[in-house]
Design goal:
single chain; 452 residues; alpha+beta; Immunoglobulin-like; Neutral Protease, domain 2; 3 domains; 8-stranded mixed beta sheet; 5-stranded mixed beta sheet; 13 helices; 22 strands; 34% helix
Length: 452
């Protein structure tokens, strides 16, 4: 009996501690808080590499932290220092493992400096006249990989003087280094998600403008390479000020950064970074032919609020970044073009979900346990996620729905969130219990049958 009793107690403890069957969303705790990154980097177009140093400020949150681990794929590590003293490190299973001589002190700020080179097969794209980072920050920068832990970012980018750079935050200086080399110094002083760190560099033309207190600029390649000229750029991005006002109204707070850049690059590209986004020339030319195809401009801008400022706590809640923004693009199109455009966008989401059903690629939109990035079902996160907001809007009505979204957005500004945070915000404003709705459509696999 004693053995059985102990086994039962152990099982109960294991279930509670592992969060199996728990009511709330699970978010793994971190032993370390990464505060600030300062990267001194120089890209090499010919070698398709980037090299330099990164200085990482961090604080230990718990006792007995003796190691830090960073992704090391595509990297050569030359030296690692802690508070300017060389420390032990080695590469194992494509991970950089840094070992300290003694456990770190809790709540003390440390500075880790890594001298390295990266040849990021994924994480950067190189062309003859421009380059840019692509998601996967861990592949071009020695950095942590926890999206819930935000940090400020400083970039000192060494490059040829005829090239123009774009980066997070604001350009605070551009000084001559040697010969025809300059250092562009970018600073993002408020914490942002690690995956939104990034930069672009190239032979760009630039158009600058303002909207209220916001400084906007558009970088694009010369007409001979891109087929674009100033008037075309002005035409395709003409609605950006209106988009900013629309998203500010829905979020309840202003564009988080006082400046924003669109960088038009070769091919098909649609990617957000904090303070700027990358958009492909092919998308731009399509939108010039059909204004209704401006989704990529609105989508990446919307991430300044939902994704960059309000960030999913882990990949189990990725739909809070992407499904919500996909829905908001549809809502913006309704605002700009009318109800038919809204229904068309929702129809696109329905069609994508139905194709996934036919291929038996169905999963919940969100999970109470933690999943890895490669486990994300993107059709469910993006398209079914958008449909859930469409359904919530229909269920709650215009006034309550938009008030609830604003309450959720303002409450969680510059924070990391789970699905439960969204649910609670909508329940508070609507004064309704939405447990059944979320269990059925968000945490469940059931596919809604919608007609427009």
């Amino acid at each position: 009996m004693n053995i059985i009793y102990k086994a039962v107690i152990f099982l109960i403890f294991w279930i509670a501690s592992s969060n199996v069957f728990a009511d709330g969303d699970f978010v793994a705790s971190s032993n370390v808080d990464f505060i600030h990154y300062k990267a001194e980097l120089e890209p090499d177009f010919q070698a398709q590499s980037v090299s330099g140093k990164v200085h990482i400020e961090f604080v230990a949150k718990v006792k007995n932290v003796e190691q830090l681990t960073f992704p090391a794929k595509f990297k050569t590590i030359y030296s690692v220092k802690i508070n300017n003293i060389t420390t032990a490190n080695h590469i194992e299973d494509e991970r950089l493992i840094v070992t300290f001589k003694e456990p770190l002190q809790v709540n003390k700020t440390y500075l880790l400096t890594v001298d390295y080179q990266s040849l990021p097969e994924r994480g950067m794209k190189f062309y003859d006249d421009h380059l840019f980072t692509v998601y996967h920050t861990k592949n071009w920068l020695v950095s942590h990989n926890t999206i819930a832990d935000k940090a400020s970012f400083e970039l000192l980018l060494t490059h040829d003087s005829q090239l123009t750079s774009a980066g997070n935050g604001r350009l605070i200086s551009k000084r001559v280094k040697r010969g025809n080399k300059v250092i562009s110094h970018w600073l993002q002083d408020s914490p942002i998600p690690i995956y939104t760190f990034g930069f672009a560099l190239g032979e760009f033309e630039e158009i600058k403008t303002t909207h209220g207190n916001s400084h906007l600029s558009y970088l694009y390649r010369k007409n001979s390479k891109s087929g674009l000229h100033p008037q075309k750029i002005k035409d395709v991005f003409i609605d950006v000020p209106d988009m900013i006002e629309f998203f500010e109204n829905k979020a309840g707070f202003s564009l988080p950064n006082k400046s924003y850049q669109y960088v038009v690059v070769e091919g098909y590209m649609a990617q957000e970074a904090t303070g700027f986004s990358l958009v492909g020339e092919k998308y731009v030319h399509t939108a010039l032919e059909d204004k209704n195809e401006n989704w990529f401009i609105a989508h990446e801008l919307a991430h300044e609020w939902w994704g960059n400022s309000i960030t999913c706590a882990n990949f189990s809640h990725f739909w809070l970044n992407e499904g919500l923004v996909q829905f908001l693009v549809a809502a913006y199109k309704q605002h700009l073009f009318g109800n038919s455009a809204y229904k068309q966008e929702i129809g696109v989401a329905i069609a994508r979900v139905n194709r996934a059903v036919q291929k038996d690629k169905i999963s919940p939109v969100a999970f109470k346990h933690q999943i890895k990035e490669q486990s994300i079902n993107r059709t469910m996160a993006y398209s079914k996620g958008a449909l859930i907001f469409y359904m919530l809007r229909n269920k709650l009505g215009e006034e309550i729905f938009w008030s609830a979204l604003k309450h959720y957005s303002m409450k969680n500004k510059q924070s990391s969130v789970t699905t439960d945070d969204l649910k609670k915000a909508f329940e508070k404003v609507s004064k309704q219990d939405l447990t059944h709705f979320f269990n059925r459509w968000v945490y469940g696999k059931e596919i809604p049958k919608l007609s427009l």
